[in-house]
Amino acid sequence: MTGIYEARIKNVSQEIELDIFYASENSAPKDDFVVSRDASGSPLSHFGDYVWDFSAYSQNTGKFFFYFNYWGSEDPNPLRISICREIRIAFFGLIWWRSGSPLAIRTLANYYIVLQRAAAYAESKNIGLKDVFGDHIYLRDFIDSRCSQWLTETLGSLLEIFAMMHPLQLGFGVVDKKVRKSVKARCKLYRASLNQHPPMPTRIYGYLIQSLNNLLSQWLCVSNEMLELARKCSSDPRFARTRDQQTFISRKLGISDERMPEFQDAASNSCMEYIVARGRAANVIGLSSVISEFQKIAQLIVQTFTGMREDEVRCLPYGCCEKYTIAGRVHYIVNGPTTKLNGGLPKRVKWVTNEQGYKALQAVQALADVIYGIYKVNPNLTQGNSNCYPLFVSTAFLGFTSKSRAKYFTPASSGLILFDKLQGEIAANIEEEDVRELENIDPHRAWRSEVNFTVNEPWKFTTHQLRRSLALYAQRSGLVSLPTLRRQLQHITEAMSQYYSKGSAYAKDFIGSDPRHFGFEWQSTKYESEGLSYIFNVLQSSEGLVGGHANWVRHRLKGDGRVILRDRVDTMRRFSKGEMAFRETLIGGCTNTGVCEKVGLRWMDVDCLRDNCKNLVCNTVKLQRVILAQEKMLEGLDKDSVEYRTELQDLEVLISAMEKFNLSVGKKDDLSY
Q1: Average pLDDT for residues 590-601, to the nearest whole number?
Q2: Coil, helix or strand at residue 331
Q3: Contact at 8 Å (CB) between 385 and 318?
Q4: Average pLDDT value for residue range 188-196
Q5: Distance (Å, rounded) from C-alpha 20 to C-alpha 43?
Q6: Which of 8, 115, 592, 609 could form a disulfide with 102 if both were Cys (CB 3.0 to 4.6 A apart)?
Q7: Which residues of 265-301 are buried (b: 16+ CB within 10 A; e: fewer)?
Q8: Are strands 616-619 and 51-53 parallel, antiparallel or unpaired?
């Protein structure tokens, strides 16, 4: 295909231009064609290179490479060389032959991942890339065996782009429209499912949090010894290897065959016990595996207590966590990568976290210190290029097998697929109460008909659920009734209320205008959380309720005493529009949508009880608990003090409210309608 083709890529610096491609009858470029240049115009990469340097076109200040030698450090063979060329031609086409608006570097990176996965699949089947994209049988097998839901969606988009190119350009044709349509249909289901990720039932969510916290504690008990062992194993390729391996390595490197301690002698008892307990072999490979697993544990904890997405955690820069104290209260802040926003000025994305999230980040930073120390790098001294030094740096850079030849440090790969044991430890089995809870959250979804929610089967955990669950439960709505989960979320609830609430002085600095930031999801989910809490704690409550709003609800119930005149959908709609509100209080809840006129210091809502406030929902079970606590507190006060008389007055109001309720139901012990 002859023609003149200009590169179509979003260029951060308009002064750096990509070369124009003049196509001859043979449309593939020659190996010496320049595919990227630096700021001075000097060539960075050529078409024939296995690695293309696109750092000059990256939005971040760090390096940005595309590695087409998908097989890693192993030697290439004729099949790999052939597939590698197919990848480069396809990738070249995305930049030079594709029509439409220019692609961002991150979008290209997504397509690059698909091409790499397709290449690895092609090699495993002893076929070419043209077979993966051109034969519907291989394509479907590739999707079923190698593609996540996200990867399938990206693949669907990539197929449509290739379909618009001439087969002589790519060197192959893609599957027909009918097959592409079936892939798009599969993608459509995935896209719809993104809005349907269920929150984890509170019991399962609490179990996951406790399991992750326990796993972090176990790592911290041995982390210093493990990292020191890792440092020694990296410093000498013979250290902690078997005697035969030491001899082989010494001969290969041409050095003296000095006897080094084998792994069992080099590792402490604590290290050995930890590695074996994690189901790994007691050797250097097992050590590498448990270190990678720890990174995943830490990543999940950070996601759990920040609401960050998986890719956001993965790209956190070294030194991202801050801790400071204001008015006696400790604050933990996570800073994301620097981006060029606001007229080109550098800006960091921020999230708030709690002590547990901070601990996990500090533990990962200790590991990063070991890895960067191997290469004589101190990220603390290179703040200007902090994006070049990821916090979750890949453990491949430990160099247990060989020193990495990469030109820059890359983050560890994400995903739980390699950590079956970890998944089993953090996911509890589903119980009947969990399904009932999901049915209460969304009664219109047939939960019991879905295989993922089968009683007595393990909960199918995905990281998407962490964001959804945190946004729903980390509110002060009263939706969470489980005491352990309340304690686990208490501090992050307080922090997010302070930093993310609408009207907060911090909200703009943290959330800004980024629609993907968790703060926006936290704000928007607030109404859903309040609405569900209102339905559970007011409309569906089996406990006695008193107060102005409770009486209002009672008078509007139908004959069976449980079905509200306004249906559930209408109730949730009114919460979303701000026409209704529900805030948990010590004795029940408040439905005031405006500013409360009661005294803010009366934390037991005694004024609301005495005046029968129209916004009050008082749960008599909670009221009884408060009465008992107040009576016990009075026992420790001087009866002649002003404090005693004030607290006694409050107690009398509480008891009076309970007595009125008991009279209304006809017998003292009955706390239900």
Answers
A1: 71
A2: strand
A3: no
A4: 57
A5: 14
A6: 8
A7: ebbeeebbebbeebebebbbebbbbbbbbbbbbbbbb
A8: unpaired
Q: At residue 303, what are phi and psi to the nearest 5 degrees?
A: -65, -40
Tokens of 118: 């397709």
**Nearest residue to 35 via CA among 15, 24, 50:** 50
pLDDT digits (tens, 9 = 90+) for 21-80: 888 756 788 999 999 888 788 898 999 999 998 887 765 545 678 989 888 767 889 999
DSSP state, 504?
-
Tokens encoding 2? 């002859």
The residues, ordered by sequence, that sit 6+ positions from 577 with a Cβ below 8 Å of its Cβ are: none
Q: Return d(Cα 385, Cα 60) in angstroms, integer.
A: 9
More confident residue, 236 or 564: 236
Alpha helices in 196-314 (DSSP H): 202-235, 243-253, 263-266, 269-277, 284-304, 310-314
3-state secondary structure 126-145: CCCHHHHHHCHHHHHHHHHH
Residue 456's closest CA among 438, 434, 431, 428? 431
Structure tokens at 436: 């009932």
Between 404 and 201, name the one with better pLDDT: 201
Q: Comparing C-alpha atoms, which of 69, 105, 102 is closest to residue 87? A: 69
Judge whether 553 and 538 are in contact, CB under 8 Å. yes
DSSP classification of residue 539: I
Question: In this predicted model, what pLDDT tens digit does every residue of 498-556 receive, in sequence order?
Answer: 888 877 767 777 876 677 889 888 988 999 999 999 988 888 888 888 888 888 887 76
Tell me the pLDDT band of 328, cut-offs 50, 70 and 90.
confident
- Between 134 and 11, the more confident residue is 134
Q: Which pLDDT score is estimated for 41?
A: 82
Instruction: Give the span between the Cα atoms of 105 and 55, in whole angstroms.
Output: 10
User: Which token pair is 35?
Assistant: 């595919």
Q: Which residues pair with 323 in a beta bridge?
A: 332
Q: What is the rounded distance in angstroms from the CA atom of residue 443 to the CA atom of residue 655?
A: 38
In DSSP terms, which residues pair with 23 in a beta bridge? 3
Neighbours of 172 (CB within 10 A): 19
Residue 109's SS3 state is helix
For residues 143 and 562, give the distance between their C-alpha atoms in angstroms, rounded to a whole number. Answer: 49
